[in-house]
Amino acid sequence: MSTTSLKIPEDVKQLVVAAAKQQDVTPHAFMVDAIRAAATNAERRARFVAAAIASREEAIKSGQGYPAEDVHAYLRAHAQGKPVSKPKAKSWRA
Question: What is the pTM of this model?
Answer without folding.
Answer: 0.71
